Amino acid sequence: MKSLVIDCGATKADWYVSGGRSLRTPGFNLAHTPADTLQEILDGAAKELGSGIDSVHFYAAGLVGESPVDLGRWFPGATIEYASDMLGAARAVCGREPGIAVILGTGANTCLYDGKDISWKVNCGGFILGDEGSASVLGRLFVTDFIKGCMPASVKEAFAREFQADYPTLVHHVYGAEAPARYLGSFAPFILQRYEQEEYVKNLVDNNFRGLFERTIVQYPALPVGVVGGFGFACQEILRRIGAEYGVTFSRFLSGPIEGLIQYHAL
């Protein structure tokens, strides 16, 4: 029996076949990616992975309700499970135990997980209406302070120099260009590099995470919290410290869900 797990985000997709074969392709969002782009990615992956796959577990960004794509076209005869990336994250960090799952990358998303399925969730809201704790919200808070002059001059000058940033450029990318959340999130490494040296930066980062706990995590039952996502993984020590202020304990941190999903499906 050959099983395939697909973890697909908007940027990249990881494919893992039982026995150890893996593949990484461009990602896609089922709600937004053009059909021809989606077909090209799936055609290439299916050709690379070959035939004989008996079951597929497909976790995808943008999957709400019934899947708009039938993977049976690429993996004929296989039993196929379609699920959201949020459920994939929950299974990756919680396994078969109840818990709170948090996706913490460019954006943020959370859910209450009963050990098998998502039982409830607080709406994430996106980087304008929510997504507290995410890299994009950290970038938004930082850029707001930059354009209003509410940060130390040394930080402002270093940021302007490294990113050729000024008021018109920042406003254009946030309001007039594609993927503003990704653009704002791209400033997170610059910010985190100054976490230990700049009190301003430390307070900004800590308060961004406090927003995640105060506006989202505390609404859930007191269960262990598992975090998946590159930004959360990089900030796990900060998250543990801030989480202790709210009585939150963490079960697991993963930079991406594929490792945990392989364990969940015992491939």
Structure description:
- Helices cover 42% and strands 20% of the residues.
- It has twelve helices and ten strands.
- The chain has helices at 35-49, 85-94, 126-129, 135-148, 153-163, 167-175, 180-185, 188-192, 199-215, 230-234, 236-245, 258-264, and strands spanning 3-8, 12-17, 21-26, 55-60, 79-84, 99-104, 108-113, 118-120, 225-228, 250-254.
- Strands 3-2-1-4-5 form a five-stranded mixed sheet, with helices on both faces.
- The radius of gyration is 20 Å and the shape is globular.
- The model has no long low-confidence stretch (mean pLDDT 90).
Oligomer: single chain
N-end to C-end Cα span = 10 Å
Kindly state the mean pLDDT as a whole number?
Answer: 90
- By helix and strand content, what is the structural category? alpha/beta
Radius of gyration: 20 Å
Total helix count?
Answer: 12
What's the number of extended β-strand segments? 10
Helix and strand run? EEEHEEHEEEHHHHHHHEHHEH
Spatial sequence of strands, sheet with the most strands: 3-2-1-4-5
Instruction: Report the major sheet.
Output: 5 strands, mixed
Helix content: 40-55%
Low-pLDDT ranges: none
Proportion of residues in β-strands: 15-25%
